[in-house]
TrEMBL record, chains A, B:
Biological process per Gene Ontology, one example term: regulation of DNA-templated transcription
One Pfam family from the record: AsnC_trans_reg
Alphabetic keyword roster: DNA-binding, Transcription, Transcription regulation
Listed name of the protein: Lrp/AsnC family transcriptional regulator
Transmembrane segments: none
Signal peptide: none
Domain HTH asnC-type: 4-65
GO molecular function: sequence-specific DNA binding
Organism annotation: Stappia taiwanensis
Gene Ontology cellular component terms for the protein in this record: cytosol
Length: 155, 155
DNA sequence: AGTGAAAAACAATGGCG
DNA sequence: CGCCATTGTTTTTCACT
């Protein structure tokens, strides 16, 4: 793992907040020259600390109205089943996030679809037919209070 | 809501994937000139379709090793309590996402902290003392299979 | 709605203290 | 690490279709 000092953390905090800031703007806010910000950014990008830059798009604007959390229990805890299930969820575009959880449900998926019909299709046609899947329990997000995905790292 | 045509969707798809692509590069991939990509981007940004640009940072690189999903039930379903709880979760930096859910738990939080001790502090010192909170049930992500937060919009 | 070229802004490097 | 200068890119605007 790469060394990260206070300046690096400040740069990361700035870019997490708004990646369209120029090196000059970032530098002004943290007391560093633009050229140094440029060099540090390159280093952080090459080291994989910055994984990528992305545009955060309003889901409603592209016709996606339903966010759901889907808990999935697998049939048997065989290595084979688990691997096939992982390949499945990674390949499904509706799945924004997939985590292996402690507790009664094996997996937790965050799913985004256009509407409730889309959620039904996703569960019944994509998830349940997979024979590693034993059962599925979904909760729909009626409202999203916060969705910024900022990491709370100390600066 | 703003009109979004096929070109706009293609631009959004490109920038969601990698926001560091230049207008020229985006244009080449979708068959449009850089100047048109620039104009459409500005329109999409001003309309709020692109909400922001952000750097996606590796949590482990900044010392954040624990992701947990925390279900929260409130004491009473008073409007007052709900509002105060919303203000709380919005203000807590450890909370990446907060959703109002259907089902038995009122709220679902996605929380990122440094370690299990940090999760304990978060739950016991930040969440439970709030008198709107009745009970809390947390599941820790032992492994994250997918975490790209890409929207699956048709292009 | 689109292209292409010019102007302005920016990123990335290298050299020096 | 700051500062400065240079070079190549990129964005943005403008004239034109």
């Amino acid at each position: 793992m790469v060394e990260i000092d206070g300046f690096d953390r400040k740069i990361l905090a700035q870019l997490q907040e708004d990646a369209s800031r120029t090196n000059q703007q970032v530098g002004e806010r943290i007391g560093l020259s633009a050229s140094q910000v440029s060099r540090r950014r390159q280093r952080l990008e090459e080291a994989g600390v910055v994984r990528r830059y992305r545009a955060d798009i309003d889901p409603a604007a592209v016709g996606l109205a339903v966010v759901a959390f889907v808990g999935v229990a697998l049939n048997a805890h065989s290595r084979q089943n688990a691997r096939r299930f992982r390949d499945l969820v990674r390949s499904l575009p509706e799945v924004q996030e997939a985590h292996v959880l402690t507790g009664d449900m094996d997996y937790m998926l965050k799913v985004v679809v256009a509407d409730l019909a889309g959620l039904s299709v996703f569960i019944n046609d994509e998830l349940l037919p997979h024979d590693a899947v034993r059962n599925v329990r979904s909760s729909i997000a009626m409202e999203t209070l916060k969705d910024d995905n900022r990491l709370p790292f100390a600066i």
